[in-house]
């Protein structure tokens, strides 16, 4: 169910804004397909209970979020290039600086061995720089903290070209948006994703109904702006200990 808070949005409170705007400047996003033997839940349990919490040893890691698709989410996709059709898992880490990502790479290697059961099939793994952020006034919480505000789902938009997605925040059910510009990773040799824009729409409305509203708005966005869609899809947020809840 939705819950409408009362009060003045923090974006309109100078004293709140003066206390800080956060120091996240980079994200690392890994997109993966389902595991061929159907062991996705086993992977989500390991990643959520072992690998992911270990990363918070790194001082420059501020946040992380894991997303998963469902058949209903797939049916609600507004667009998907063949190269991204297989994406059903998305893992994102929020960093303060390049050096933090270097530490993440080293720690991930140190955690390999008998702790990692297997890998999900990677579709895309890339590094992005934070470009902008906006929050709906109905959310009350400000744009700087939207990723930490509980979300019912996340609508992910990957595009070639850079046009602010801020107007999408007026869509019913969208609490806020962070968007990011492609940036070659400082480690691990990922491909150059310059020119790509990755937007996270944090959803607090009914996920599929909000996705349907966004589908119509996105169609107009792509018709009227010099950008090319690559993937536009809703994803569920993984719930701890219900690892198979959003799997087919």
Features:
8-stranded antiparallel β-barrel, alpha+beta, 248 residues, 23% helix
| Overall number of strands | 9
Instruction: Tell me the β content.
Output: 25-35%
Kindly report the average pLDDT value. 92
What is the overall silhouette?
globular
Number of helices: 5
Cα radius of gyration in angstroms = 18 Å
Low-confidence stretches: none
Encode the helix/strand succession as letters: HEHEHEEHEEEEHE
Could you estimate the helical fraction of the residues in percent? 10-25%
> Sheet with the most strands?
8 strands, antiparallel, barrel
Distance between the termini: 24 Å
- Structural class category: alpha+beta
Instruction: Give the strand line-up of the largest sheet.
Output: 1-4-2-9-6-8-7-5
Multimer state: single chain
Walkthrough of the structure:
The protein is α+β, with helices and mostly antiparallel strands and 248 residues long. It is 23% helix and 29% strand. It contains 5 helices and 9 strands; from the N terminus they run αβαβαββαββββαβ. It has helices spanning 14-18, 40-54, 71-75, 98-110, 207-224; strands at residues 26-32, 61-68, 79-80, 89-95, 122-135, 153-160, 174-182, 196-203, 228-237. It is globular and about 50 Å long.
């Amino acid at each position: 169910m939705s819950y409408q808070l009362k009060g003045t949005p923090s974006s309109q409170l100078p004293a709140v804004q003066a206390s800080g705007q956060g120091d996240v400047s980079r994200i690392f996003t890994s997109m993966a397909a389902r595991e061929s033997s159907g062991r996705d839940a086993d992977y989500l349990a390991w990643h959520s209970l072992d690998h992911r919490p270990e990363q918070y040893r790194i001082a420059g890691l501020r946040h992380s979020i894991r997303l998963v698709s469902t058949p209903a989410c797939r049916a609600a996709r507004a667009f998907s290039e063949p190269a991204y059709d297989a994406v059903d898992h998305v893992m994102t880490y929020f960093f303060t600086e390049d050096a933090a990502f270097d530490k993440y790479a080293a720690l991930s290697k140190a955690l390999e061995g008998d702790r990692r059961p297997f890998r999900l099939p990677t579709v895309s793994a890339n590094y992005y720089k934070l470009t902008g952020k906006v929050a709906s006034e109905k959310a009350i919480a400000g744009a700087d903290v939207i990723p930490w505000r509980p979300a019912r789902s996340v609508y992910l938009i990957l595009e070639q070209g850079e046009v602010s997605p801020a107007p999408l925040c007026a869509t019913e059910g969208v609490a806020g948006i962070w968007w990011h510009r492609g940036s070659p990773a400082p480690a691990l040799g990922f491909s150059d994703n310059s020119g790509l824009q990755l937007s996270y729409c944090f959803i607090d409305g009914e996920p599929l109904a909000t996705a349907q509203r966004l589908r119509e708005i996105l169609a107009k966005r792509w018709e009227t702006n010099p950008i090319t869609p690559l993937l536009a899809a809703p994803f569920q947020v993984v719930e701890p200990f219900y690892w198979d809840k959003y799997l087919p």
